Structures are given as C-alpha cells and as structure tokens.
Amino acid sequence: METPRQRQHRQTMADILRIAHGQLVTEGSAGLSLRAIARELGLVSSAIYRYVPSRDELLTLLIEESYTAFGDAVEAAEARCRREDLGRRWLTVGRAVRRWAVANPAEWALLYGSPVPGYHAPPERTTAAGSRVPFLVLQLLADADLQPASDDPPMTAALHRELDKLRPGLPGDLKPEVLARGLLAFSSLCGLVSLELFGQFTNTVTQFPAHLDHQLTRLGATLGIPEPT
C-alpha cells in the first residue's frame, strides 16, 4: 500500500512534469527551469532537487513521457485496423503520427526538433520508447513479406553491413534493402509532419491532411504496400 510520503512524492513529481510541459510550450526545451518550477510549486529552489536532480534529468523524464504518449496514441490507432489491410494500417499510422504532433507540437519539437545544446539523451532510457512507432512501420513491411527488388538503388557494402547488424530484434526477417525502405518511410513521415508544424510549407500547402494522405499513398507504393481496401 502506498504510504502518505510516497503519495506526496508521486503527486509532486506529477506537478513538476505538468509545469515542465507548460514550459515546453511557452519557453521551448532550452528554457526549462527547475527554479521556476520550484517557485510555481511554492518550494525553495533547493527542495526541487530532491525530486529532479538536474535539468538533464528533467529533459529525460519529459522525453520518456512524450515518447510513451506518442507510442500509445499511434499503437492504439493502428490496432483498430484489420491486420490484413496493410495499406489501411500504413495510412492510419501516418495520420496518427500527424494527429499527435499537431495536438502536442512542443513535445514533437522536443522529440524530433533541434537538439538541446549540451544535452545527450541516455539511450538506455529513451531508445526503446522512441522505437515503438518506427517498429510499427517495420512490422508492416514484415507482414507484407517484402523482399529486395531489382530496382532497389545500389547499396554500398559498408551500409549493407551496418543495416544487417540492426536486424536481430526487428520484426520478421527484413533484409537490409527492405529495412532501408522502412527508414525512408519513417524519416519521410517525420519530415512531412515537421515541415508543417515548423511553418516550412507557408504559401505552399494549406490542405495538410489531404497532402499527407497523398504523400503516404506515394510512399506506400515505394515501400511495396498495397492501397487501403
């Protein structure tokens, strides 16, 4: 059973992260301030370090929480699709990525925007959470049983070896050439969403949902995924 002290600690941590998410919106990741959070909570500045020892730890907590929320949202949307409708699953993943990003632009910028100067996310705490959505794309390719094609661009031996090392632990038996298609798909999807959110389509595209669907269909054809049924 949770003790009063444990309950107080949990509530204070939740309040710290809630205020920190607000700082992301108003100040950006570089403007996170533990002292400002302490003031808002009515704590002396030294007290907050009993909960979060540094700004880097606060950033890591925010990244973990954001990746978890992102993965939960996209996985939940994709799970509602019929497994055999690969085109619908791909379209749903892309739409869910954009929907979460539009609803959480500050968190998207934290995950996929400019790196925070001087901060390096600890891979042992962020890699697994950050891989959930890319793994959905790779699972699609595995379920489609895609194989290297004669029109795949040439791949250097060094790149082939590098991608081949990634295969253990990935869905299915993805060959390096197919894995490269998956990386293209996810990076293209993130690029489309980021260009929209960061205002790079100004005076170019305004019909963002329709534009995303069009590009997802094109990407699906490149990947070898059939159109939705």
List the helices and strands and how they pair.
Blueprint: H1 4-27, H2 34-41, H3 55-79, H4 86-103, H5 105-112, H6 123-130, H7 132-143, H8 157-166, H9 176-197, H10 208-223
Give a short summary of the structure:
With 229 residues, the protein is an all-alpha fold. It is built from 10 helices and no strands.
Descriptive notes:
It is elongated, with a radius of gyration of 20 Å. The protein starts with a helix and ends in a 6-residue tail after the last helix. Helix 1 (4-27) crosses helix 2, helix 3 packs parallel to helix 6 (123-130) and helix 4 runs antiparallel to helix 7 (132-143). The chain has 10 helices and no strands. It is mostly helical and 229 residues long.
Distance from first to last alpha carbon: 50 Å
CATH architecture term of the largest domain: Orthogonal Bundle
How many strand elements?
Answer: 0
Largest sheet: none
Question: Number of helical segments?
Answer: 10
Shape: elongated
The secondary structure category is mainly alpha
Descriptors:
about 230 residues, mainly alpha, Arc Repressor Mutant, subunit A, Tetracycline Repressor, domain 2, 2 domains, 10 helices, about 0% strand
